[in-house]
Design goal:
Serine Threonine Protein Phosphatase 5, Tetratricopeptide repeat, 3 domains, four-stranded antiparallel β-sheet
Length: 507
């Protein structure tokens, strides 16, 4: 037997090798012990940092009262889950969930807080039930809220009264839901949502506030211009911050006249915004969140009385156009016989749904006894609004083609970031670096177009010229051809750099 080999019944052990493994194991153990100590210190440090950076309950309360719901949501989540029996923690966390768009998740906590007699919980539950078109439950909750509040607090009492009036209006609207065909819906970013409207030039244009010749309005302001480009209608805040519709006309010298209020009666005690004027110059659609709204913003319609130069009593369009959420920017394109409007119903903050529908020449309402009336009123399924056997593909294709034509006409460029994402304006870019590179690319293309035109001219002269002319031109032609090749390569690299800068922002 070889020295160092130990035999047993089941195996053979090499002692030197075993010793090596044993030494290795000892080293691993020692290393692990050192790592444990290090990680203990690291974990302790992280915990201390977490405690140091943690928001106190009092700090969270202060931010809560300021409406900073997103910031304080994690803090109240910890308290609500750690102390599930605390009504206040449930209330605060439930409100934060509701205000950040997590309505379904908020119910559990608000219902518990309500069961413990928290007044604000009842008010929020009333709003939830109103949004669900459950008006009986909404009324019960708002009655609870009223019973719990201090009757001496007039502001809170006004809130309760306003909620009751909204419920009454909603019940009335539910009895006269218009029968329309909603043929498509788009979920888009709220920021400049109207860029997704595909309307014919005859319907006018929807523009940002940048087009205004006066002081800049709020960034959310939309400016409507008819096809003639001779008029503008938009909203502007007064000294109290309340939005009013304004208008101005283009003068004979091409300048814009002083702007003036459209009609004060359109405000209805709230903000007015998102105007659209039909081609007749008289029929006006707009949004208002005043006394006759069930939302947020509701969509209204009025007509101008040319005899007195004012507007008739505005009419709330009712359901399904309006809801307890914000509904606005109704546009009717008479060329395609298609209408559009936007809403944030059932959407997370920062997103809106755009509905595309076929307008009626004469209003027709659903039977109020229809068992699906609540669903039809809230547009839970747009397919439920379709006529049996109807095919809307031709209309949708027409809209799509119109959108492509308009996009091409208005486009600063057409640039594909990837196979699914196409940009046509500098505003489309999220990355400032990509935007700057795109500007360089467009400048390079403009210069290169001039080079190409010059090269084409020289080639034409070369083909028509004699031997002497050809000799004179050949050197310049070769130089421009080399420039053209080199610049084309540089532009390709610029395009790659643009994509490299922009693509990470799309994730």
């Amino acid at each position: 037997m070889r020295p160092g080999i130990v035999k047993s019944e089941n195996c053979v052990l090499d002692l030197p090798l075993l010793s090596a493994f044993a030494i290795f194991d000892i080293k691993i153990i020692k290393t692990l012990e050192i790592m444990k100590v290090k990680y203990r210190f690291l974990i302790a440090a992280l915990c201390m940092a977490s405690i140091a950076n943690a928001m106190t309950l009092n700090e969270a309360k202060k931010l809560f009262l300021k409406g900073e719901y997103e910031k304080v949501l994690p803090t109240f989540k910890v308290y609500a889950q750690k102390y599930p029996g605390n009504a206040n923690y449930n209330q605060w966390y439930g409100v934060c969930l509701f205000e950040t768009g997590k309505v379904e998740e908020s119910k559990k906590y608000l219902e518990y807080a309500d069961s413990k007699g928290i007044a604000e919980a009842a008010r929020y539950m009333a709003q939830i039930k109103l949004n669900e078109l459950d008006y009986t439950a909404a009324s019960d909750y708002i009655d609870e809220f009223e019973d719990r509040i201090d009757n001496d607090d007039s502001k809170i009492s006004e809130k309760a009264l306003a909620m009751k009036e909204r419920i009454k209006r909603a019940v009335f609207m539910l009895n006269s839901v218009e029968k329309i065909q909603v043929i498509d819906s788009l979920i888009v970013d709220k920021d400049r949502f109207f860029r997704h409207y595909k309307i014919a030039p005859e319907a006018g244009t929807l523009n940002t506030a940048d087009i205004l010749p006066y002081e800049k309005a709020d960034s959310s302001t939309m400016v409507y211009m008819p096809e003639s480009k001779s008029r503008m209608i938009w909203s502007m805040p007064d000294s109290t911050g309340t939005l009013h519709l304004m208008e101005t006309y283009k003068l004979y010298d091409g300048k814009w006249d002083k702007y003036s209020p459209l009609d004060d009666q359109l405000n209805d005690g709230g903000d007015t915004n998102y105007p659209f004027l039909m081609a007749d110059g008289a029929t006006l659609y707009y949004a208002c969140n005043g006394e006759n709204s069930i939302g947020g913003y509701d969509i209204f319609m009025t007509r101008k009385n040319f005899g007195s130069d004012d507007y008739l009593q505005p009419q709330n369009l009712g359901m399904p156009y309006n809801s307890p959420y914000d509904d606005y920017m109704l546009v009717i394109d008479e060329m395609t016989n298609v209408g559009w409007w936007a809403t944030d119903r059932n959407q997370i903050p920062g997103k809106v749904t755009i509905y595309v529908f076929i307008p009626n020449n004469v209003r027709e309402n659903y039977d109020r006894e229809n068992e699906n009336i609540s669903s039809l009123a809230s547009l839970r399924s747009i397919k439920d609004t379709w006529k049996e056997g109807a095919d809307y593909s031709e209309i949708l294709n027409e809209i799509a083609q119109l959108g492509m034509e308009e996009e091409t006409q208005k486009a600063d460029f057409i640039f594909y970031v990837n196979n699914d994402t196409r940009y046509t304006t500098y505003e489309d870019f999220n990355s400032s670096e990509a935007r700057s590179l795109m500007q360089r690319l467009m400048e390079r293309k403009a210069w290169l177009n001039k080079v190409s035109e010059k090269l084409a001219d020289l080639r034409s002269q070369f083909n028509k010229g004699n031997t002497q002319v050809k000799t004179q031109l050949s050197t310049e032609i070769l130089r421009l051809e080399r420039t053209l090749v080199k610049s084309t390569e540089e532009m390709q690299q610029l395009e790659n750099d643009i994509r490299a800068a922009e693509l990470p922002t799309l994730k």
